[in-house]
Amino acid sequence: MVGPRAPAAVAAAVLVPVLMGGCVVHRHAAPHRVDRPGAADVRTGPLPTPTPPVPLTPLVPLFPAAGGRWTGHPPPGPGAPGDELTRSLDRALAGYGGRLTAAVRDLSTGRDYRYHDDLQLPTGSTSKVNILMALLLSTPWRGLDARARRDADRMIRLSDNEAADRLYERIGLEAGLAEANRRFGLERTYAPPGRCVDLYCWGITRSTAEDQLRLLGALATERSPLGKEDREQVLRLMGEVIPEQRWGISAGACEGDRVVLKNGWLRRVSSGRWVVVSAGLIRGGGRDYAVAVLSEDNRRMAEGVTRVEDTAKRIMSALRGGGECAGERGAPRLEGEKEKKAAKSP
């Protein structure tokens, strides 16, 4: 999202089949289209009819970890996977500079991994999911008027900034977001005060990878403050985005996996550097995962996307025990693609 609110870059939401529909992961997304430097205002087609999502295991409490560390059950044991993964990420990211934080949780077992989870970074358009979830806390989907539904649709699927501005006003700006986040269990997510003026808006909300997992968890559990229908609507919208925005944590999914995600990005006027973020849910191989990667100070947006995707791949591979995706399952399907395309397997 964001930059001076004029032509922008790409950003925002994608997925492979979500927890509610079937979609496929495209390993190589279409070229990123820039509509406003740093924001996202794009177009897409009609929404598919989602299939009912499979209930996910409730999120268990998250535990902070400096550097990188596995937590959860069963205990990871000394040394091994967590240390090795952290060293691998340190080496892979060393040449880029900038800062990056990431987290993944196996929702089926509660095991998770944190990489520099002390960092609190901008969310860009990823915060649009947070805005919609806050809105639905006060007004369930079936109670929204036509304009609000249209804005929600455009905000998530198209990453429309003006639609996000209107809904942000509707929830009460940063105060409304803060109250909603308290109910979602977020502890270190803060939006700037006041109404939207260029970059100074929801797009520079700062958050941690841990808080992003908590927010994703509220979409994946019956214990969520949101009702079932409202969770389904958010996941449905996250599952239908334009091809240019199907990058991010989806790179960590195997063929046949179901994925929903929302990406964000913005270019800082002062430095010209990019914030690139991706967060979402991956389901595959009988497991459910919540994944979030936030980065800043990328020299180019494409560089940020590469960092985010490489991080997602490495973390997901480690969480699966180092197993590779190739040949493990059938071909992935992008949410919204026709079933005949989705059914094709390599």
From TrEMBL:
UniProt-listed InterPro entries: Beta-lactam/transpept-like, Beta-lactam_cat, Beta-lactam_class-A
Disordered: annotated span: 321-346
Keyword line: Hydrolase
Listed Basic and acidic residues bias regions: 326-346
Pfam family, one: Beta-lactamase2
Domain Beta-lactamase class A catalytic, first and last residues per copy: 152-294
Transmembrane intervals: none
Gene3D superfamilies for this protein: DD-peptidase/beta-lactamase superfamily
Molecular function GO labels: hydrolase activity
Name this polypeptide is given: Serine hydrolase
Native source species: Planomonospora corallina
